[in-house]
Amino acid sequence: MKYTKEDIIQEYKNLKAHLGHSPSNKEFLAETGIDQRILGKLFGGSPYSKLVMECGDTPNVFNKQGTQIEHILTQWGTLVRKFGKIPPSVEWEHNNYKPTVDAIRKTHKLRWNEFSIKFLEYFSNNPEWLDVVHMIPIEKATLRAIQIAPITKIEGVE
């Protein structure tokens, strides 16, 4: 069946009256048999939320805050410390760190090969992480680019 925006709105209103409450996205799709892609074609991005608003209701908004970059870098530093060098990205997931490397790339625009530079930006002057900072192979030009003083020998670390 070819749906119009008005058809979808009427389906929502009918289901809401039948259920006695605003249907969730999952309920709406299951009860009406309307495909999520049809909603997207008619309403654009976040289609169910737009449908709900057009029907005069307030959509559920999930405030799922992503993992903070500092936490991700702390995990990365712990992994480097464990291996004594920068490990391959497969070790991140093998050691069950979250979010996934792919999710970090998408949400923080940070590739695995850029973790070391980002780590230096955040932790190069933190004494707790100097052993990890010392393990990061880095060129002087890179240090100048991110405005970090060259790493000197750390007492007790060879």
The span between the termini is: 72 Å
Order of helices and strands: HHHHHHHHHH
Q: Round the Cα radius of gyration to an integer and report it.
A: 25 Å
Mean pLDDT: 86
**Proportion of strand residues:** under 5%
Low-confidence stretches: none
H/I helix tally:
10
Structural class of the helix and strand makeup?
mainly alpha
What does the main sheet amount to? none
Helix content: 55-70%
How many runs of DSSP E, i.e. beta strands? 0
Globally, the shape reads: rod-shaped
For this structure, the quaternary state is single chain
Describe this structure as you would to a colleague:
- The protein is mostly helical and 158 residues long.
- Helix content is 56%, strand content 0%.
- The protein contains ten helices and no strands.
- The protein is rod-shaped and about 65 Å long.
Short description:
With 158 residues, the protein is mainly alpha-helical. The chain contains ten helices and no strands.
Please specify the SSE layout and strand pairing.
Elements: H1 5-19, H2 25-32, H3 36-43, H4 47-54, H5 69-83, H6 90-94, H7 101-108, H8 115-123, H9 130-135, H10 140-145
Helix pairs in contact: 3-4, 5-8
